[in-house]
Each structure stands twice: as structure tokens, then as C-alpha cells.
Design goal:
Blueprint: E1 7-13, H1 17-28, E2 36-41, H2 48-55, E3 61-65, H3 71-81, E4 86-90, E5 94-96, H4 100-110, E6 115-123, H5 128-144, E7 145-146, E8 150-151, E9 158-162, H6 163-169, H7 181-191, E10 196-207, H8 212-231, H9 243-262, H10 266-288
Helix pairs in contact: 1-2, 5-9, 8-10, 9-10
Length: 291
């Protein structure tokens, strides 16, 4: 990163101080340091403030509290507060590899007028729910690849966007208040000729929901948000069961089931078919709730 390039890392958080602490600790270990870290605290009631103060001694953190509701409003507020030419989005429950920022910016230097999508893997390890989500995410990437580097959609848990693109085409959509705001944002960028470039070396690890209740709630919300997005799209609709990604997920499930049986992991082998059946039902209920 040359002296003229500035990078702002943007993090939204609420009542997840243990995960935020791990997130910020990973940012202290970056081989390329960010110019600033913008944290929007959606009025946490846990020890978030103490964690932020602790890491302000080691990181260039600027923290702001907000009562705004909806990811889009919070992201847009963070963008307003950021001064960097490059905006790097990282979820508060993600750990960044030590070269995460370096590789995002390296790819930006190669494609200065495009959006750069990083690669994300799931935590905790050896957890069935995280393994399912990890497979789903990698299948999402593969199913959305155009050629070797370009993607149809983006995911803002691990992302770089030049500030000039947001100034030109706008920020996140206010009508997407349940999630999937990043999908609409990416589609709008592509409609304006901006490419989404995949950088597999910019790695982050995402802490997934690791129990049945949170796992189901997450998938229900995702289905609702994608349904709402489809209502506002004329083309590129996601649909209740995207064909290519669904087939890839089923293949991953069959492969995982075989491995669990081979390793005599009977608990996972028993739960996996039940979870996929549950996900199908949840997907249908969430998607068609407001159709």
C-alpha cells in the first residue's frame, strides 16, 4: 500500500464482545496495517465498549454508537464515517488471516476499478453446523464463478470496495432490511459495468451458528431476505432453490455423509439427513412467507 492509498476496515457489531475481541486481535497481526478501523456499535449492552477501548491502544479504531435498524443503514453510516479510499468490510464474528488486507489490496492494485471478494471458511472446526455452512459457502462461490476470477454476486463479510464506486453508484439499499443487502449491492455494481473479482488468498474464518436453534433462525432469515430481494429484481432472481447451488449442496451432503459413516461418526451421520430435510422446510417457509 503506497502512501496515497488509505484503507478503512468496516465492522458492525452488537453484543458479541468475545467474537469482536478475536476479530480485533486478528487485525493487530496484519502484515499490512489498515489506515483506520470503523466500528459501528449498535448499542451493545455487554462488554463491547471495554473491548473497543482495550484495542484502541493497539489499533486505529474509530467507534460510533447507533440506534439505526437494518444492516444497510448501519453500513451506510460506517461508509460516511470512513475516510479511506478503499473500504474493507469484515464481519465482527470473522478472524482475518494475517495477510488478509495485503491480498485484498494487492488484487485491488491489479483491478483498481472493481470490487474485490475475499474467501471465507467456517469455524468452529469439527462442528456439524459449521461444516454444513462451510460447504454451502464454497458451493456458493463455485456456482457464482464466471470464468476464473469474476463472480455474479458478492458477500460483504469479507470484501473490498473502492470508495469512488459507492460515491458514483450509491451504498447499500435501505429496502433490504432483513439481509441480502450485499446481493442487491453487487448486482447493482455489475449492472453498471463493475466486476466482482474473487481473491482466494484474502482469507477470513467466520464463526457460524453452532447449535440447532440459531442454525434454523439464520437460514429462515436468509430465506426471507432473499425472497424480499427477488420481489424487487426483474432479472437474476435467486429463487427458492437455486438449481446449481442446490445440486452442489446435495453432492456435498452425500460426500459428508459417506465420510461420517466411514469414520464411524454416528452422531453426525444421523443428524445430517435430518438437518437437510429441516433446511428444505425452513427455506420454503421463509421464502414464501411474504410472497
Amino acid at each position: 500500500m503506497d502512501s496515497k492509498t488509505t484503507a478503512s476496515v468496516i465492522i458492525l457489531t452488537k453484543n458479541r464482545s468475545p467474537l469482536l475481541e478475536k476479530n480485533l486481535d486478528s487485525l493487530t497481526q496484519q502484515t499490512l496495517k489498515p489506515s483506520e478501523i470503523i466500528i459501528i456499535d449498535n448499542h451493545s449492552t455487554d462488554s463491547t465498549l471495554q473491548i473497543i477501548k482495550k484495542y484502541q491502544q493497539r489499533l486505529p479504531i474509530k467507534s460510533f454508537k447507533s440506534n439505526l435498524k437494518g444492516y444497510s443503514k448501519l453500513y451506510n453510516l460506517a461508509i460516511q464515517k470512513a475516510s479511506g479510499k478503499l473500504l474493507c468490510f469484515l464481519d465482527d464474528d470473522c478472524l482475518a488471516d494475517k495477510n488478509w488486507l495485503k491480498f485484498l489490496i494487492t488484487k485491488n492494485q491489479q483491478y483498481p476499478h472493481e470490487v474485490i471478494q475475499g474467501n471465507t471458511f467456517s469455524l468452529p472446526k469439527n462442528n456439524l453446523y459449521a461444516e454444513i455452512m462451510g460447504n454451502h459457502y464454497q458451493n456458493w462461490l463455485k456456482s457464482n464463478l464466471i470464468g476464473k476470477e469474476e463472480l455474479r454476486f458478492l458477500d460483504n463479510k469479507n470484501l473490498l470496495v473502492p470508495q469512488k464506486l459507492i460515491a458514483k453508484y450509491g451504498g447499500f439499499p435501505l429496502k433490504q432490511n432483513l439481509g441480502s443487502e450485499d446481493v442487491e449491492f453487487g448486482l447493482r455494481m455489475r449492472q453498471n459495468g463493475v466486476k466482482i473479482i474473487f481473491q482466494p488468498k484474502a482469507v477470513a474464518w467466520h464463526h457460524e451458528r453452532n447449535n440447532l436453534k440459531d442454525f434454523i433462525k439464520q437460514h429462515y432469515r436468509i430465506a426471507q431476505s432473499e425472497s424480499k430481494l427477488d420481489k424487487n429484481l426483474k432479472n437474476n432472481k435467486i429463487g427458492v432453490f437455486p438449481r446449481q447451488k442446490t445440486l452442489m449442496n446435495l453432492r456435498s451432503a452425500i460426500k459428508a455423509e459417506y465420510q461420517y459413516l466411514l469414520k464411524k461418526q454416528w452422531g453426525k451421520a444421523f443428524k445430517l439427513p435430518f438437518l437437510y430435510l429441516t433446511l428444505s422446510i425452513i427455506r420454503i417457509l421463509g421464502y414464501f412467507k411474504n410472497q
